[in-house]
Amino acid sequence: MNYTIIFLFVIAGISSCKAQSTTTAKNESISQIENTTKAKTNKFPEASGFVSDFEGVFTQEQAQKLERKLDEYQLRTGRIIVVVTVENIAPYNDIKNFAVDLSNEWGIGDRDKNDGLSIVLSTTLREVRISTGLGTEKILTDEICQNIINTIMLPEFKNGNYYEGINRGLNALADQWK
Predict the structure, then answer these.
(1) Which H or E run includes 62?
(2) Which of 17, 89, 100, 103 allows an S-S link to 118, with CB 3.0 to 4.6 Å?
């Protein structure tokens, strides 16, 4: 009888270990971003995944669509893109430095390849920035990113279509980042 109880506990323990070890790549990537954020200073809010909509720009459905899109992109390419919306960039004076420091703080992309990409949007400040790691910048130059902002994203933003601007911008970035 005692052997039966011990056997059941061992089987239950093995099953729970197995269930814990089958984490998806998405959860590992998000967890890596979140853990990196927690380990650093509290200058920036904690990441909530590939899409951190702190300003509340997107509907829940839109945020989920973007999250799925970026998750699928990461699984397909190994590259991480995050979208972040914020009401303000204090204590920063310009969104460029804010975006670069946020990306570094969160550890976006592969550390060795320095291949992360972040889109930081503030509708309140009427500013947007695409921040690339040095590895990414070899393909997606500042000029290419600024052109995507000016010709694809901003026309949608001017009409209040923030989701569509981000979505179309992500498509253009993915097309260029081959």
Answers:
(1) helix 60-77
(2) 103
Tokens matching residue 26: 């998405």
8 A C-beta contact, residue 113 and residue 137: no
Question: Could you tell me the CA-to-CA distances from 34 to 51, 76, 117, 173 in Å, in that order?
Answer: 12, 21, 16, 24
Distance of CA 128 to the CA centre of its chain: 15
Rounded Cα distance between 131 and 97, Å, is 9
Q: Which region holds residue 107: left if phi is over 0, alpha if psi is between -120 and 50, else beta?
A: left
- What is 25-176's CATH number? 3.10.310.50
pLDDT tens, 83-105? Answer: 999 999 999 999 999 999 999 99
Domain positions in the chain: 25-176
- The DSSP line for 158-178 is HTT-HHHHHHHHHHHHHHH--
Asked whether the predicted pLDDT for residue 31 surpasses 80, the reply is no
pLDDT in tens, 47-69: 999 999 999 999 999 999 999 99
CA 77, CA 177: separation in Å to the nearest integer? 10
* Model pTM score: 0.77
